[in-house]
Each structure stands twice: as structure tokens, then as C-alpha cells.
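Q&A log
Question type: sequence-to-structure
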Amino acid sequence: MRLRLFAAVGTILATSCLTVTLDASPTGAAPFSYTSVSTGYHRTCAVTTEGHGLCWGWNLYASLGTADGAPTVLAPSPVTLPTGERFRHIEAGSSFSSCGLTETGIVYCWGESGAPGRLRLPTGSVVTQFSVGASQVCALTSERHLYCRGDWSSGELGTGDMEYTHLPVRVHLPDSAVPAYVSAGIGFTCVVATTGTAYCSGVNTAGQLGNGGSGTSKVFARVAMPEGAQFSSISAGLERACAVDTVGGGWCWGRNYDGALGDGTYAHSRTPRPVALSAGTILTDIRTGWYHTCAITNAGMTLCWGSNDGGALGWGQSYGGKTIRTAALPDDVRAKGLQVGLAGTCITSTNSRIFCWGSNLHGSVGNGTKAPTHSPTEVLRVGTPDAGQPTLDSMGTHQATISGSIVPNGATSSVVVLVSTTPSFDGARTLNVLLRRTQQSTLAQLFAPVTFSVPVPGLRPATEYHVKIRATNMFGATDSTASSFVTLGAAPTLTAITATDIGGDFASLRVIVDANLLDTAVSATYATDEAFTRDVGTASLGTARGDGDTHLSTGLTSLSPRTTYFVRLSASNEVGDATPTTISFTTIGDAPSIGSATATGGRKSASISLALDPGLLGTRIIVEYRPSGTTRAWTAEERRVDASCTTVVVPLMALQPATKYDVNVTVTNAVGFDRLDGLSFTTAGGAPIVAAPTAHDVSHTTVTLRSLVDSNEFTTRITLQIDDDDDFSNYDEWFAGSTVAGSTSQISLDVSELVDSSVYHARFVAVNQKGTTTSDVITFNTTTPVGKLLRRRLDPVVPEPVVAPTPPTSPTPPPVDVLTTPTTKQRFAAKIMMKTSASKATKRTAEKKPVKSSVKKRSGVR
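Response status: OK
Response body:
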């Protein structure tokens, strides 16, 4: 049967409904203890002594009310509730909705109705007791008013109507009876009045209304009360109801399925029948479900009878029936609360624990399985995690490693480590611990220790720290007992301070430092008086690290010669400072002197080499120079050298080539000076230098001529001269290019229109302001082209044949070859003519063999 009454229980708390906030518990807090339990349709819910609601089992339509969306939840999980609210009791219900009563008297319902919503009762109503059936919910207020809402189709609301209502309606009992207790069953509802009389409303298929009739009643009808009996509580189940009277007797009526009435028979009854209890047995509560019934006695025993499907009777055997069985609770367990569901049973014990048994198809027993349980089994003891005291694995000056363990107690837990310099953990630093997912991946692991180790960086040395572990799960948080430790490190110490390598303007300081595991800065302050007020300077000796002695040193420079200095050494780290130590020393020094000097000139530069005695002091060298024979101002080049320098080379740059320079040298330091005059040098430079030319790619009319030209520090103009005579008496000349001063260039010129099969002579001429240079001469032959006529034979002249005119009317005859083979005489005459012609050509060549060029020949150029 599907519930419809919860389609709109009330205002849905979509914005204010949060997970219950739980404060941190002490170390190793025990799992939850419980005040009540309710098992219904394949699910179970309970309330802890702190007022937190937990549910587990089948989560169809989110009927567990938990944040877990899984279809089945095998361990107790918290029910979401508006912040600040606490539960007094939860009813699991006989269908797919559950409701809970808060300590403030408000009822919230969830499941088919969605997120927890408030049962909308008249303003100011405070609910003291309520019950959830299969299709209805009823509540009693502190004013003894009874309100019901839900499905009216069976009359179970007792209002006299058969229609559905989504708002609770006040219900009145006959005879103006005042309701004191209500129980909603499957299709019917029963109430006990303050007089002890019971009333029931709804379907009556098996006599469950207890009025002796068989018809459905839309209003509450009086139960046929046993003579003299007064009921204190009542339970409506499936076609059956049971009650406890004021003297501890039990009564049941309706369908006696498998002996569920407990009267020792299997006969149905439309009026209350006494439960066949053994003599002296006094009941404090009775609950009937779908197919079985259970009760608890004033001695804490749990009695069950009826169907034993899935082990619902809890006596350790598989069969049931009309015989009353005693549930096999542990010897030290006494029941004080009871609830019966579809095919399962749960009790709360006098020590606030929960035991369940029976059908476990969807995990409603709460033991982490889905297997039927024929004997009482304690529900998994969930709660806030246990957190063990942390231990120190390792420790340094700025870090430590902490180990710890937790027990999740049934829910995936997160862990942080709190670190503080105060035992109260004010302003504590929080470090997240990354637990491996596999450490809490099974239900068994959620009840086993989880160990971890976490580094704690960013600590201060020589400082006491307090650490504790905080473990949090959906039930709340637990803080462990705190541990404490002191990080390593101490202030530095200084030993063996000395001044060495003392010169005129420098000295070395050496010191031994124990940094005591911390980075330690070491420095020196020096002055020329003990009060450290004159000529004060500072110098760093660097950083000492680690444990044990560290040797550090530094040089003091720019000191004054022949002066006493006082030096104070300091060392500092994060913990503190070393005790300052003071020493003194006296510098030495003399005036510098020049041992020897040489000057060497280059093209546009020169170098002055000095042999120097700096007098143990830093020395300044001044080289002055200018062209000889001029009154130009001296140009100065300066260098500074340290006290150890005895050989110095001073370069002079950007000089004029081919020029003589005069040089003076002065050396000076803090004590005195020395001077050397009369040095001189001449820079290089002159006429250009031309390499012998080379001929490339010579053909019968062209050639490429190349040469390497050094301008020798002056801008140079280059020409190419070619003549067919080696005396260059009548040469042709081409401009070949120019070079910048101070360069060496490859000159290349292509020449064309030469005469084939000829001999030529070529040379390059370079000119600058210092002179003219002519290269060596290169001779080359132009080639003879293929096919050139070298000799012609002499043949007789053969007259052309005369062809007679052809009449116009006659066709043109083919040509007639009239050439005949020349005679010997004719060939000779031809040779004579060729020879004569050749002799004339030879004569013209002897006069001049012209050179053809694309460039005009310059006349008179030599």
C-alpha cells in the first residue's frame, strides 16, 4: 500500500534543513547510546540520548531521511533535521514514510513527501505522542487533542469522512472521551482514552476494531473492553491490535495469523482475547506488526509469538506459532523499549543499546549485512570517531612528523591535526590529514583502527608545541588527548676569531661558528677606535648551517695603511644572538714604485707594460699620452690594482695610425707615488698591401680576377689593369672598388669582350694617402671556342652555270649541279690567296691586338 498522506506534509525545509551539528567529544568517546527504536517496513530508526535521529535499511523514496542517497544503508546514518532541533522519538512507519517528534513538540515527516517537512498543526500545538501507519499519521498534543491526516478511503482517520486530507484534522472520540495514547496501523487506527477505554476506526476485515462487528467504521468505535480492564497503551498492526492493561496483562484481537494473538489458539477474534502469559508475568509494553507480536516484561524479558519468518521471534530457531517464545537476548541485556515491524523486531536495553533480529532483506537489522538474523544482534555501534593520542615520529628545528590513529565508528571520517603553542589551543593551526580511500572503503574498515602519519611544517625552533587529533564523521567530531614536544635549535656560539693576511689596505677575518642546527648570519663591524665611532664599516662572513663547527672568513678592503682597527664579530639565528667578541689588528703599507715600463704600438692601439711594486696597497695607475711634437692636451688612461698586483698592462685605444706618441706613467697609493717620463711608441700604418691576383672562370672572351687588399689603416682605392703586353705600355684599366680604413677586403672583377685564343697580363693597383702599391702580374690565356676556323684551303674559282631561259609554256626542269671537282691548279691558287690574306692579318696583329671591353678604355692612364 502506497502512502498518499505525505504528498504535502507541510512546508518543505529545503533551505534550512542541514545536517545536525555535533560538538567535539572527548577522546575515545563511546558510540551512541539510545533512548528509543522503531522498526517498520524494511527499515529501522532510533534516537540517541543526545537527541540525534538515525535510520538504516531500505531507502526507497528517501524514507530514511539521511543524506546518503544509496538504496540500502547497512549502518545507522543521521537524519537531517533543522539546525538546533533534537529528536525525542522516530516512527519508521508501515510504508514508505517516516516521522519524528522533536523535543520542542514538533513532528517532521519525510520519505514519499520529500525532504523533512513539518506536520502543520494549529499554532502553539505541542505534540506529546504520535504514530505513523501505512496511510495515516496521528498526533496527540499536550492539550489532549487528537489530530490525524492522510488517506480517508478506509475511515482510519476516524473523522466520519472517507476523503483524503493533506492537513491534519482534529478527531473526537465518542462519549467525549479524552485521548491519551494513539497507534496507527494498516488501514485502521486505535486510541486509548484517559479512562483506559480503547477506540478504533477504519477497516474491520478481521475484527481488528475489536467491537465485535465486521463492518468498516468511519468514526472511532468503542472496543469491547474486557470486564474490569483498563488499557494503558495500544498497538495497531496488520488486521490485528494488541494492548497492555494497567496491571500488566496483555490483550489481542483481530486476525490470528500463525498464532499472532498469543491466546494459545489459531482462531481469529473480533473482541480482545487475553495473551496466554505464564503466571506472574507482568507486561510493560506490547507491539504487534504484520505477522507476529512481541511484548516486554517488567523483568526486561522479551516475549514473541506468531510467524517466525526470517527469525522475527528472535529465539534462535526457525519455527514459530502460537507458543510464546522468549527472545534470546544476551544474559546482561534487559529490554525497556520495543518495536515490531514487517518481519523484524528491535528493543532498546536498560543500558541504552539496541538489539534487532528477524528478516534482514534490506539491512534493517543494522548489523552490516542482509542475512536473516534468528537471534538478537546488537546494532552496529556507530558514533563520533575515536581519536588516539598522537605520537611524535621525528622532529627537527622547523618541522615534525606526527602519527596517530582513529576508529571511524561506522562512518567515513576525516582527520585534522591541531598544532598550537598553548595548551588551550587558542589560535591553533589546522593541518588536513589525507587518508587513503581504501582505508575506509568497507563497512568492516569503518569499525577498525585507521592509522596515519602527517608532516607538520612551519614550526619555530626551540619552541614547545601542543598537538592533538580531531576526527570528524557525519555523527560529529572527537578531539584526542594532546601531546607536546619542543623543537630543536639554540642560539649560536663563536670561537677562534683571528685576523690574517694583513696588508696595507686589507685583512682577512676567520671565525668558527656553531649554528646549532639553524641558519646563522655572521657579520663583522670594524672601526679605528674601540668605541666604534670612527671610520665604521661592516662585512658579512656568510651563513653557518647545521650542527657543529663551521669555518667562515671574509676580507676587509679599502682600509687605511699603518692603522689600528678594532673588529667586533656577531652571529644571529632565529633563537638568539651569540656573545659578541672583539679583536684588533694594525695594517701595513709603503709608497708604490715602478720597476720598468715598455710601450708597444699597434695600428690604432698600443700597450704600456709595467713592472710594479704596489707597496702592499691598492694602487692607482695613470698613463698619459699624446702625439709627439704637438701641444695637444694629454689623454689619460687609469687603472686600479690591488695590493698583490706586480705586473700591469694598460691598453691605449683609438690612436692615429703611423703616428709617434709620447707617454708618461704615474702610480699612486695611500702612502705615496712614483712617476716615469720619456716613454714613446709609434703606431703602425702605411701604403696598402695587395696580394698577387688570381684568374678564375677563364673563357674565350671573359675572366674573373681577384686579389686580397689590406688598406693598412687608410681608405684605399683599387683599380685593375690588363694589357696584352707584359710591359703594360698600353693597358686598359677598370675601377675595381675601395676599402675602408683598417680593413682587409677580397676584390673581385669580371672582365668580358676579350679576344679568344690570346695571352693577357693583369695586375691590381691600390692607392691610399700613404702611397701606391701594385700587385704582382698574373698572365692568363683566353680559350679557343669550339668551331673556330683555324685554316681555309685554296680551291679554284668555278664560274656559275648559265641556265637558258625556259619558255613560259614549258614546265620548270629540276636544277642541274654544274660543280665539278677542282683541279690541282685551282687548289694552289686558293692557297696563295689564303696565305696572302693570312699575311695581312698577321701584320695587323703585330701592330696592335685590340682588347674589347664593355668599359671605355681610358687613354694615357698608366
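Response note: The two ends are 131 Å apart (CA to CA).
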